[in-house]
Amino acid sequence: MTSPNSGSEHEGLVIRDNRRIDPETGEVRPGVGKTAEEPAPAPSAGAPAPDDGLAADLAAQLAERTADLQRLQAEYSNYRKRVERDRVVVREQAVANVLNELLPVLDDIGRARDHGELTGGFAKVSEALESSVGKLGLTTFGAKGDPFDPTVHEALMHSYSSEVTEPTCVEILQPGYQIGDRILRPARVAVAEPEEPAAGPDRSASEPGEAGEATADPEDN
């Protein structure tokens, strides 16, 4: 005997076939066997994205590392310039020290040339020496008639002359030597200055009739 409620127990029962393969056609049923994914909630307006803080931190670190690299590059560039400058200074100082020791020899060669004694093998040796020091940058200065310059001339003699209009080197007693703009030894010279103007006549005595002169009064006679 069937229970009077047996029919009502199966009411509302739904049977779904979730097989992906249709048993009748053998084809895959679209959308069957897959669970629909819920869409991710859209971020609210104005709210920062989850990675904004990380991106800002990375950007700050990148800027800091870039600044460090630029600073190191600038320091290295300055270091190279300073080393190169010091190297040039040391080389110039070493050359100057050597040439300073050779100046007396060059003076002797110059005096021998002036007296006509620079001949034969001695002349060839002196020419080779002067050529070598010239390649090192040594040059001479000081010529008769040059205006006197106390920064490059050393006055050993002084006189007056009517033939000059300013202090002038009239004799070169020893030539000067320099390397570039560096003075190794000033030129030793005799200097002449323009003659001083002659003093005017002495007018200490008063002229007749000038104030202070005693005159005779006619009434005194």
Describe this structure in words.
A hairpin with a 2-residue loop joins strand 4 (176-179) and strand 5. The protein is built from three helices and six strands, in the order H-H-H-E-E-E-E-E-E. The chain has helices at 6-9, 52-114, 120-135; strands at 138-141, 153-161, 168-174, 176-179, 182-185, 187-194. Among the domains are: 62-136; 137-196, Nucleotide Exchange Factor Grpe, Chain A, domain 2 (Roll). Strands 1-4-5 form a three-stranded antiparallel beta sheet. A three-stranded mixed beta sheet has the order 2-6-3, with no helix packed on it. The model is unreliable at 203-216 (pLDDT under 50). It is rod-shaped. It starts with 5 loop residues before the first helix and ends in a 27-residue tail after the last strand. By secondary structure, it is of the alpha+beta class. 38% of the residues lie in helices and 16% in strands.
